User: Fold GTPase Der from Prosthecochloris marina.
Amino acid sequence: MKPLVALVGRPNVGKSTLFNRITRSKSAITDSTPGVTRDRHMAQAEWQGKQFMVMDTGGYCHEKDTISTAMLEQTLTAIHEADAILFMVDVRSGLTYLDLDMSGMLKKHFRDKPVYLVVNKVESRQLAYEGEEFRKTGFTEPWFISAREGTGVADLLDEVVLSF
Ligand code: GDP
Ligand code: MG
Assistant:
């Protein structure tokens, strides 16, 4: 079986955008409306000659500031099935209590597998500086990326495929 990389994080941080970039598929719907991705999406990806699966998580979540039960369940399933987790946060909204909830969940359920703290929407040096605050999640090495522009994604994937 191919290794599985799961993208987790609260709605609107850019999971589906990164999923599309990594898998180059259009199967995960992205929209400016938070929570628009309705299902778990899986697709194949390849990097540095290594094949793996990528799982996007979304769930029905109509409110920005709550994690719906469906989303929580999806995230837990992803955590249990995955070999590596990309825990995504959004530098433009800063650290939220939902991010802290998720990081707590990851620490509780995902102890022995790699978790990469991925700070998304970093499109300037200033934003990279602000992204340092995400170290408070307890995942101390933030990876600064822009899923939209693609910056930082190659370095991140280099590291992720090394963990397989
Ligand atoms: P998801 O809910 O976590 O799957 O987030 P989406 O991928 O649907 O993205 C949510 C919103 O953030 C959309 O409006 C995206 O265009 C925007 N977005 C995603 N990645 C980036 C990024 O790297 N930079 C910026 N500035 N916006 C982004
Ligand atoms: Mg999505």
User: Anything to note?
Assistant: The two ends are 12 Å apart (CA to CA). The helical segments are 15-23, 69-81, 97-109, 125-130, 153-162.
